[in-house]
Amino acid sequence: MRRSLAYPLAVLTVAGPTLFVTAGPAAAHGYVSSPPSRQALCAARAVPDCGPIQFEPQSVEGPKGQRNCHGGLGQFAVLSDESRDWPAKSVGTTVTFSWTLTARHRTSTWEYFVGNTRVAVFDDRNQVPESVVTHRVDLSRFQGRQKVLAIWNIGDTPMAFYNCIDLNIGGGGSGSQPPADPAPQPSSAPSSAPSSAPSSAPSSAPARPQPSSAPVNGEEWRPGVTYKVGDVVTYEGRRYRCRQGHTTIRSWEPVFTPALWLAL
Prior knowledge:
Layout: E1 29-34, H1 38-43, E2 61-63, E3 89-91, E4 94-103, E5 107-114, E6 117-127, E7 132-138, E8 144-154, E9 159-169, E10 219-220, E11 226-227, E12 232-235, E13 238-242, E14 246-247, E15 261-263
Parallel strand pairs: 3-9, 10-12
Antiparallel strand pairs: 1-4, 2-9, 4-7, 5-6, 5-8, 8-9, 11-14, 12-13, 13-15
């Protein structure tokens, strides 16, 4: 029986452990990180024994016009293996798909299919996209467990990138961008507890860490810090350089976000 797992969206906004730029006709790479595509799940080790795709989720590039999950590439055939019991992300009926592009390239269109039905198309008019691209797609006609095929059509080559995303549509969730970690919820107070806290105590749940404007180069990566382009951090014993200025949240660790961090 297949699983239908409501993975926290932020946790599985992932990529491979480093930045891979392999040679190819399009010289562009990308994958759907949220909700997690099959290659994102492999890169996060949420699905075991995926083979080489776990190290390069952004590399499923094949000729345009295909309708499979692996782009016709034999080394990534596991992505089209329906016996792998792919976890399905529970979402609402309108879903925001987020692409992480580790190498950008001129784009003709982005397409989304459920079965043989093209449910959405976005025309980029041969422009170069940002490193993170999002599309909001109405999937209200398709309830229950579905496999969405997302395709990035390159603008000036005959190639495209292929991603399959398993969803439980109408199963809850918004499919939006990863939120910051929610603040801890206070436990219920006894009925005899005072109705208000002393003036010296906070009146609400603890606040999230405030971003630091001046991180020290080479320090350990941590959430709640504002990094600028060129800042260097250490994570799990490896050094990374910031590629885009941003304020960190949990699940955006350098190993999971090659669009933000370049492994050194």
